[in-house]
Structures are given as structure tokens and as C-alpha cells.
Design brief:
single chain; 98 residues; 2 helices
């Protein structure tokens, strides 16, 4: 279990620039013309943050959000492995089987 946990931590550390949130694309009227409007919606400290994202930045944001989804999976996996490790250690300390 330690080995699996270590592998997850290594993969998490190797993820380049990741972010959580949702990419939103809509349209807004500016100078009488409808133009595309893109932003990243995420919650920070219970408040919604919505920074604007330029069209040229979208590929980088897509990659960062994909990495963010992978990071969330790894966080969950690391948590489950940690619980299993702590449970096994507690059993060993109490004189149970290894």
C-alpha cells in the first residue's frame, strides 16, 4: 500500500500546472455586436471567482483543467490508501495480524 501511495504522490507532483473549476463559454453584447466570452468559474474560500480567459489561452486552460481532474482523482486515491495504511498499522500495534 505504501508503494501505491508513493506512486500516486509522484504522479501528483509531476502534474504540470493544474486548476480546478469549470470552463464557461457564452456570448455577450459589446458595441452592439454579440461576441464570445470565456471564463473560468471556481469557488475559492466559499466565493465564486470568474477570471476572463482569452481565446488564445483556452488550450492552456483546457490542459490545466484536465490535469486538475486527474489531481482530484489522485487526491481521493491517496486518501483511501492512507486510511488503509493507518488501519493496518493500528492492527499491527494492537497485536493483530500483518
Amino acid at each position: 500500500m505504501w508503494f501505491l501511495r508513493h506512486k500516486c504522490l509522484e504522479e501528483l507532483a509531476a502534474l504540470a500546472g493544474w486548476v480546478g473549476g469549470s470552463r464557461v463559454q457564452t456570448r455577450r453584447v459589446q458595441s452592439g455586436k454579440a461576441k464570445p466570452f470565456r471564463y473560468l468559474s471556481r469557488s475559492v474560500g466559499g466565493r465564486n471567482r470568474i477570471p476572463w480567459v482569452a481565446a488564445s489561452e483556452m488550450p492552456a486552460f483546457r490542459a490545466a483543467m484536465k490535469a486538475g481532474r486527474r489531481a482530484a482523482v489522485l487526491f481521493d486515491r491517496i486518501g483511501e490508501l492512507t486510511v488503509a495504511i493507518l488501519t493496518a498499522e493500528a492492527k499491527c500495534a494492537a497485536g493483530g495480524e500483518r
